[in-house]
Amino acid sequence: MKKLLIAVLFVFLFIFFGTIVGYQIIKRQMAPEYDGDKELLDLQANSEVYFDDFGIPHIYAENESDAYLTLGYIHAQDRLFQMEMMRRVGSGTLAELLGEDLVDVDKFFRTLGIPKHAEWSTEVWNQEHNSSSKSATEAYIKGVNQFIENGKLPLEYSLLGEKPRPFTINDVHSIVGYMSFTFAMAMKTDPLVTKISRQLGPQYLDVLSVHTLPEHHVIPNNYPYRNPETNDINFDETLISLLDKIPVPLLEGSNSWVIGPTKTASGEVLFLNDTHIGFAQPSVWYEAHIEYPDFSFYGNHLAGVPFGLVGHTREHSIGLTMFENDDQDFFEEKLNPQNPNQVLYKDSFNDLKIKNEKILIKDKEAIDFEIKESIHGPIMNDVIPEIGRLTDNPVASWWVYIQEPTKALEAIYKMNHAKSIQEVEEAVRLIHAPGLNVMYGDKAGNIAWWAAAKLPIRPEQVNSKLFLDGKTDLDEPTGWMPFEENPMSVNPTSGFVASANNQPDTLSNGTFFPGYYYPGDRWNRIAKTVSSRNDWTQENIKSLQLETVNETHPIIAKSMIEAINESAFGDFEKVKQALVNWDGNHDLESISPTVYYKWLYHTLHGMMADELGEADFENFLKTFLYIRSVQNLVQTENSPWWDNTSTEKIEQRKEIILNALEKTLKELESQFGKNISNWQWKNAVKLEHPHPLGAKKPLDRIFNVKAPAVSANEESINKLAFDLNGEGIYYVKSGPAMRIIIDFANVEASESVLPTGQSGNVFSPHYSDQAELFATGQYRPQLMNESQIKNSPSGILRFSPKRK
Questions:
Q1: Same domain? 425 vs 304
Q2: For residue 230, what pLDDT is reported?
Q3: Cβ-Cβ contacts under 8 Å for 28 (sequence gap 6 or more)
Q4: Is a pLDDT exceeding 80 seen at residue 234?
Q5: Is residue 715 part of a domain?
Q6: Amino-acid biosynthesis: is it a keyword of this entry (predicted)?
Q7: pLDDT beyond 50 at 240
Q8: How many CB atoms lie within 10 A of CB 471?
Q9: Average pLDDT, the chain
Q10: pLDDT for residue 784
C-alpha cells in the first residue's frame, strides 16, 4: 500500500509539473512581447514602445508613417483575434471560420449590404490621391500584416486550426460598417411597431412612446453665429459677451459631458466620456499613446482602425455618444403576381436586382445565397424573421449608411490631428452615418457638441417607425438637411454640454427630428448635478460618473403600490417600506431593485404577452421603446393593454399589478429564502465578459472574464444594463466601455479605466487586470508625461528598419 501511494503521488506530481511546464511552453510561444528588439520592413527610422503598468503602449517615432506602422504591429499582437472577428462580421464571412451556426449571421450582413458597401468605399479609396490619412492607414495595415507574418499568433487560431489572412483596407471598411450597424435601432423596432399598428390598432400605440413625449428631456441646441458667405463659425463674436466675465472663453462640448471654465475649480475645461457598448472580452477599446514631431495623441481605438475615435491631445479632446437618429426606413413593396422577381413602382413593374453569393462554411460544403434588391434597397424578409412573419410582401431596407462611401477614416484622422475647434467641425461634417454625438473640449476654453450625420428630409405624412409604401415615391426622402441645421451646441451660456442618447431639441429649421432616443433620465441627472455647483474637479466629478440612481423607477414603483390594497404585501411589509422609501439607487445591499425589476417584468408580461406573443414580448423588452414607454405604460389606467385577450372577462390595471406582485413575492421567497436581507441586489446580479470562443465549455473557463457584482441598473448615469426577465437573475450585458476624465488644467493627469484589460491575448498579464478596478469604480492614469513613462516602464520594445 505504501509503495502504491508513493507511485500515485509520483504520477500526480509528474502530471502537475508537466502541466506547468507545458503551460509555460505554450505561453512562451503565444504571449505578447513587451520587451526586446525587432525589425520592421518599411520603417524609416528607429521607434520605441514603452508599456506602462497596464500594458498600454506609448509609441515614440521620428515620423507619422513609422508611428502608425508601429501601432499596427502592437495593436495586432494584443488584439489580432478581435480584429479577425470584427472584419468577418462586417464582411459576412464568420461561417468560414466558426462553422455553419453562423451562416444566418453572414446572410444577414450580406443582405443588409455592408460587404458591398465596404467594397464600394475601398474602390473610392483606391482612386483617391494620397493624403495623410491614407498613408497613415496604409502604414498601420503594413504593421498589422508584419505581425501576422512574423509574430506570435494567439491561442484562438490554434484551437480553430486556422491562420489569419493578410489585413486589407477593405477589412477596415468592413469593421466601420459593422460598427455603423450596431447603432441601427430601426431593425429591432420598426417591425414590432408596425405589427402593433396593424394587428392591434392605434389605441395600443397611443400608450407607447413611439415618438418622444413632452415629459422626456431634450438636449438644448445653441447654434453659433456663422459667416453668411462661408458658413464658418466666428468664435470671436460668439464669445465676446462672455470674455469680460471669465478669465478664459466659455467652452462646451454615451454619456459625455464637457464642463466649461466658469463651472470648474481650475478655471479650465473638464471633459468626461463613457461610451456604452456591449461587454465582451476583450473590451472594445484599445488604448494607445503616439508621439512624433508636432503630434502627441492619446486615443481609444477600435480593433483594426488606426485612429482613435475617442482621445485627446494636450490641446483638445474628442468623445462620442450615439445620436440615435432615425436613419433607416422600411418600404413594403408589391410583387408582380405573374413574376416574383418584379415589384410595382410608379404604375409599372420593375425588375429586382438579384445577386448570387457563395458562403464558405468551415468543414462543410459552401452554399449559394441570393440577395434581391428593389429601388429602395435590399429585401430583408428572409434575414429578419419579424418581417417575414408580418407580411408576405417584400420589405426593403433604405439605410443612410449605404447611400454613399464612408469617409470615416478621413474624419477620425482629422479629429485626432486638429489644431482648432474649426478643424474639428470640418472633420465632423465628413461623417454621414452612423449618427454620432461628437463631444469637444479644448485648452482655450471652448466646449461643443455636434450631431454628426446626414439627416434625410422626409415628407410630412411619413411616420418613420412604420413600414412605408414602396409602390410610389410619396414616402421617399426628398433630400438632406444642411449640416448647419444639425443639432449642436457651441459655447452655451449654461457652461456645459451633455449628451446621453436623448432627443435633441427642435432644430434651427423647426424640425423635431425622429429617432430612437432614450427618455433623458441620464441627461437630466447630469444637467441638474453639473448646474448645481461651480467648483467641479477631476476628483469630485467621479461620484457623478459612477452614480447608479434612476429617479423614474421609484415613481413607477410607488404608482404600482398605490394601485393595489395596502395589505397586499402581507408578511412582506418590510418589502413595501423599502420600495416606498427607495430613492432609485441601485446599491448592492439594497433589496428594492431586486423586487422592483421582477415585479415590473411580471406586470408587463401580464399586460402584453397575450397580445404580442412570447417572442415579440421579449423583443419589446430589448428595444428603446420599452425604456421610453414604461412609465406611461404602467401608470395609464385605461390602457387596452391591461385586458388579457385570452380570457372572457376584462381585466383591470389593479388586477394585473396585484397578480404580478403575488408571483414576485412567491418567486423571490423561493429563490432567496424567507429572510429578505438575502434579497439584496448583489445576489441577483452577474457580470461576465464573454469571449467569442467562451460560449463552448470548457473554453469559457479559459477565455471569459468574470467580475465582481456591479450595481446593475436601467438608465442610471453609470449604466450597467441587462435584459429584464422573469427569472430574477440579471446578467449585465453592456455598460461603459471606458470611463474617461480629463482636466485641462493638467492633461497629463487624466484618468480612465477599461472593463477588463488592454490585451485580448489570454497569456498576457493585461488580459483582465482592470476588471476589478472597473467593477469597483476605480480609475488608473492615462500617462502622457515622457519622463514619467520612460523612467519606469513595465517593458520596452525597440523597432529598427529591416532591410528587404
A1: yes
A2: 59
A3: none
A4: no
A5: no
A6: no
A7: no
A8: 16
A9: 92
A10: 98
Q: How many domains does the chain have?
A: 2
Judgement on whether residues 115 and 245 belong to the same structural domain of the protein: yes
Q: Contact at 8 Å (CB) between 594 and 668?
A: yes
Q: What average pLDDT score do residues 379-396 get? A: 92
358 strand-pairing partners:
368
- Could you tell me if 195 and 310 lie in one domain? no
Which domain, by its residues, includes 654? 188-211+551-585+591-679
Which of residues 292 and 698 earns the better pLDDT score?
Answer: 292
Report the pLDDT value the prediction gives residue 1, as an integer from 0 to 100. Answer: 47
Nearest-CA neighbor of 352 among 391, 316, 380? 380
Check whether residue 370 and residue 473 sit in a common domain. yes
Pull the grid cell for residue 349: 413593374
Q: Which residues of 666-695 are buried (b: 16+ CB within 10 A; e: fewer)?
A: eebbebbeeebeebbbebbbebebbbbbbe
Report angle CA 402, 408, 409 to the nearest 5 degrees: 135
Q: pLDDT higher for 252 or 528?
A: 528
Alpha helical stretches, state H, 370-520: 385-390, 408-417, 421-428
Co-location of 106 and 138 in the same domain: yes
Boundary of a domain, candidates 679, 694, 718? 679
Helices (H), 622-731: 624-635, 653-672, 699-703
| CA gap 116, 264 in Å, rounded | 48
Q: Domain with 532 in it: what CATH number?
A: 3.60.20.10
Predicted pLDDT at 232:
63
Taking only the tens place, the pLDDT of each residue in 528-568 is: 999 999 999 999 999 999 999 999 999 999 999 999 987 88
- Are 136 and 197 part of one and the same domain? no
**Counts of helices then strands in the chain (DSSP H, E):** 25, 34
Whether 18 shows a pLDDT value over 60: the answer reads: no
Instruction: Output the CA torsion sign for 100, 103, 104, 109.
Output: positive
String of DSSP letters for 505-529: ---TTS----B--B-SHHHHHHHHH
